Every structure is written in structure tokens, then in C-alpha cells.
Amino acid sequence: MSAEQLPARIDLLKAAFGDAAAKFEENLNEGALVQLHLEELWREIAAVRGHKFKLERQKPVYKARAELASKVPQFWYNSLQNCGPMAQFIDPVDEDALKHLKEVSIEHGEDVREFEVKFTFGKNPYFKESVLSKKLTLTPPSSVTPKPEPAAPYDLEATTYLASATPITWTSDDHDLTKKAPRSLATDKEEFDEFEGPGSFFNWFKEEGEDVTTMGELLLEWYGHATEYAAGLAAVDDDSDDQGFDFDDDFDESEDEDPKKEIDLSDEEKRPKKKQRK
Known about the structure:
Elements: H1 9-17, H2 21-69, H3 75-82, H4 84-87, H5 95-98, E1 101-108, E2 115-121, E3 131-137, E4 161-162, H6 177-180, E5 209-210, H7 215-223, H8 226-231, H9 267-270
């Protein structure tokens, strides 16, 4: 018997249950919907457990990497500078301070979606702290309005928020890099030519609430490949689970693109470069 010849389920239900068939049909549909929701929930739970397992297995690897990196001058500074998405947040005024960077670590909380980034510095002429850290949490600070809905329990894509500002004790106003290069966003400028860059890297520590620069997520992606970046390696396998190197959002593989169109190599020269701040 072909599929077209099979009786519809409602017809079978009517034959078996008469006038109650519609109620049984509704009950079956509700049961199927519950099953779909349960399957989706189990997939989300499995993803969170898998992510947590991955993070635990990576801990000794990253610890060993930190020990090796401590013997390489400016390992962490070079790694950040060689990573395009992170380098855009390093203003020229930051470069000397970041050369005093001794280690970067990322620690995840009990809820693996929350994490803290720690930057350990050697003695430097800019600020007194040896460690500057920033937490990203699922709980938005009171400054975020309107108050967003709580994150779903197993949603790995849930929004994280910058926790309260991290104080930096600058040695003097002249050494306050956030005053020399305050935060600037391209969206705040009427013309793109007016945009000189996002300002000092250290502005991020003062911010709370929505991570408008997405530096937290970018640091997560960078951290998994810090060695490759420090070594200046061009890329990693595109199939990498971390998907940390696919940053070219402007690349368009549209079918409408003319494959014979001449490429204007002068475009590279048109890209805005970092401007030295006085």
C-alpha cells in the first residue's frame, strides 16, 4: 500500500473512538510537542556539559602554555597585536603599557557562560595594580535599563554583561591612558573619516553593562589561539571547533558577484590606519 493510500490518523481515530477522536488527536499533538521540547532541552544540556568538559580538559594545556610563554619576551603583547580583531582596540598610547603584560588568563564560573579575564602586569610607569581583571556575568548591573529577561538555563548564546568597573590607579594624570585616548565608537561619528579608533584598550575596564565593543567575546576567541597569534601564524583550519579566526564579516560570496570583476588593490591603501596621539 502506497503512502497516498494510507488512511489519515484522524480517520483511524474516528473509527476507534468515534466522537472523541478530535480530543485524542489534540492529546497526541500535545504529547508530540512536549517530546520536541524535551529533545531540544536535552541537546542544550548536552552542549553545556560538553562545553564544561572541554574547558576542564583545556586547563592544564593553558597552564603549560603560560609557563612556556613566561620565557618569551612580550608573548602576550605580540599575540594581541597579531590578532586583527583585538589589535583594533590597542591604541598607540597603549603599546608601551601592554609590553609589560606578563600573562593573560580566563577563568570560567560555575555557570560556564560567565567568565573573568585577568591581565597580569609587571612593574610599569602607568598604573600601580599588578592584576587588572574584568568579569562578564549573566546578571546585568542595575545601570542596564530596561531590565532584560533572565537568560535561559542552558543557552550557550545568552548575553553576558560587563560587571562593575575595575578601578585603575594611574601613577599620574599624564599616565592615564584613558584620558589620552577616551572611548570612541564609529556609530557616534557623522562621518567615518572622523573616527580615529575606539580609544585606549584600558577603557574596557571602566565600562559596565552591555559590552558594546564585544571585547569579551573577542578575547575568548583570541585566547584559544594565543600561541598561533604570538607566532604570527596566518590561520588555523577553518573547521576549528572554536571558530575563532573567521572575522571577515565584509566578505560576500554572493552568487551575484561578478567573478571577472577586476580587483582594486588600492583598496588596501584606503583603509584607515591608527593615528598617533599626541
